[in-house]
Automatic annotation (TrEMBL):
One of its GO terms (molecular function) is amino acid transmembrane transporter activity. PANTHER family: AMINO ACID PERMEASE (PTHR43341), GENERAL AMINO-ACID PERMEASE GAP1 (PTHR43341:SF1). Keywords: Amino-acid transport, Membrane, Transmembrane, Transmembrane helix, Transport. Its main location: membrane. One of its GO terms (cellular component) is membrane. Gene3D superfamilies: Amino acid/polyamine transporter I. The lineage of its organism: Bacteria, Bacillati, Bacillota, Bacilli, Lactobacillales. The chain crosses the membrane at residues 21-42, 48-65, 99-121, 127-145, 157-183, 195-219, 240-262, 282-307, 339-359, 365-390, 410-427, 439-459. It is found in: Membrane. It is a multi-pass membrane protein. This is Lysine-specific permease. It comes from Lentilactobacillus kosonis. InterPro entries: AA-permease/SLC12A_dom, Amino_acid_permease_CS, APC_YAT.
Length: 491
């Protein structure tokens, strides 16, 4: 990295920002909306098992990321760790894959903003709301990292408060204090409940749960701009684990207790129909007439928060790719406030093009979204394998665990479990397509996998990189990305 301070991001994120960003990243429409369909497919017990296992995997993933992020806190960490601890070609593939995913996701989210706004103002053209949302997100990210952190803090806080209120009202409804009659746990035992259909539905819900938890890895991105990553990152990881258990497991248990899995409303849950969000249905069951409007506002906040985080993550990844020698140097330049404006402008431009394609060319838009579909799980896979090799290299080179600022628990069980479950989720996306030899569906579902493989092999063949031997892996603590650029030059 250049010695010029203007080419470095600034550490403007406080501990409370990092904690709330990490939590807010995994609370979104996956919980507010999709949790209903999960209960309808696998039953109350199956949904709880699937979300519980995924929550456990995410915790181990976060501890793996935390150990590396406290040792080397940098922006765009996923690509950096893959390059530093595995193979520069893997860092190249992971970085561009992750950037592409979030740039597309921002476009998807601003399109969803228009759908949510139609609840109140159905006659206003959709593109106006999407344009306003994209402009707002750009401005938030262009001002300062502190502005981004404060915005995410308050939007995440709205989601957290909503869930707490939901849990209180839900429990009062279950015990008959609200809603007029005692419900108890009878919906856990009706018909085939609590487990409906055996193992297969649980695996399918596991896929849904995985998408719900995506975004937790943002703590690795924020570590590079945290004022005190050694303190804030471990704190965020420990807090997120307990909050995931509290919010997801309890929320799904409350929904399953109040709404039977046979309810047709749960089967219809989708991001475009706020009126049948399970949260809305539970509030209505408790007698709250304005439930749909309240939840629509919360989901609007959630979607904007997701787009805001996506813009931040993709911008920092592009910045990191530049400073690692994987992208043009101009994208690594920052302004006086530490914002990588060139990377921000390019990311916004790609998101805008993707959004325009949703209007002008729906088929192109569909393929772009499909191409980014599994990127989150691929990023998780990269984090797990990077940590596995980092810890093995650390010990092989004679270091003691006491030297690390944060220790990932239960090594190597954590990263190995993450690797296995990520492969299971990726393969289990659409097994029916393979059974029917439907090659179009296979391509649409799994497109991001060959894209990563192509990126990896193309870089590897061009630069003749090799997997770094464990005794040659650089495990020294560092706050600079210059080491990665030097590693890239050596290979």
């Amino acid at each position: 990295m250049s010695d010029n301070s203007n080419d470095q991001v600034q550490r403007g994120l406080k501990s409370r920002h990092v904690s709330m960003i990490a939590l807010g990243g995994c609370i979104g429409t996956g919980l507010f909306v999709a949790s209903g369909s999960a209960i309808s497919v696998a039953g109350p017990g199956g949904a709880l098992v699937a979300y519980g296992l995924m929550g456990l995997m995410v915790y181990f993933l976060m501890t793996s990321l935390g150990e590396m992020a406290t040792n080397m806190p940098i922006s765009g960490s996923f690509a950096a760790y893959s390059a530093k601890y595995v193979d520069p070609a893997l860092g190249f593939a992971m970085g561009w894959n992750y950037w592409f995913n979030w740039a597309i996701t921002v476009a998807v989210d601003v399109s969803t903003v228009a759908l949510v706004m139609k609840f109140w103002l159905p006659d206003v053209p959709s593109w106006i709301w999407s344009g306003v949302a994209l402009a707002l997100i750009f401005l938030i990210n262009a001002m300062s990292v502190k502005t981004f952190g404060e915005t995410e803090f308050w939007m995440s806080l709205i989601k957290v408060v909503t869930i707490i209120i939901f849990l209180v009202i839900g429990l009062l409804t279950i015990f008959g204090i609200m809603g007029g009659h005692f419900i108890g746990l009878r919906n856990f035992t009706i018909k085939d409940a609590p487990f409906v259909g055996g193992i297969s539905p649980i695996i399918s819900v596991f896929v849904v749960a995985g998408f719900s938890f995506q975004g937790t890895e943002l703590v690795g991105i924020t570590a590079g701009e945290s004022q005190d990553p050694t303190h804030s990152v471990p704190k965020a990881i420990n807090e997120v684990f307990w909050r995931i258990i509290l919010f997801y497991i309890l929320a799904i248990a409350v929904i399953a207790a109040i709404l039977p899995y046979t309810s047709h409303s749960l089967l219809g849950s989708s991001a475009s129909d706020i009126a049948i969000s399970p949260f809305t249905l539970v509030f209505q069951r408790a007698g709250l007439a304005a439930a749909a409007s309240i939840m629509n506002a919360v989901i609007l906040t959630s979607v904007i928060s997701s787009a805001n985080s996506g813009m931040y993550a993709s911008t920092r990844m592009l910045y990191s790719l530049s400073n690692s020698g994987y992208a043009p140097k101009a994208l690594g330049k920052t302004g006086s406030n530490g914002i990588p404006y060139n990377a921000l402008l390019i990311t916004t431009f790609v998101s805008l093009l993707t959004f325009v394609s949703s209007i002008a060319g729906p088929k192109i838009y569909m393929w772009l979204v499909a191409a980014s579909g599994l990127t989150g799980f691929i990023a998780w896979f990269g984090i797990a394998i990077s940590h596995y090799r980092f810890r093995r290299a650390f010990i092989k080179q004679g270091h003691q665990l006491s030297e690390l600022k944060y220790h990932a628990k239960w090594f190597p069980f954590g990263p190995v479990l993450c690797l296995i479950l990520c492969v299971l989720v990726i393969v289990g996306q659409n097994p029916q397509a393979f059974a029917n030899f439907d090659w179009v569906q296979i391509l649409v579902t799994y497109m991001s996998v060959p894209l990563v493989v192509i990126l990896y092999l193309a870089y590897k063949f061009k630069h003749h990189t090799k997997v770094i031997p464990l005794d040659k892996v650089d495990v020294s603590p560092s706050n600079e990305e210059q080491n990665l650029s030097e590693l890239n030059d050596q290979n």
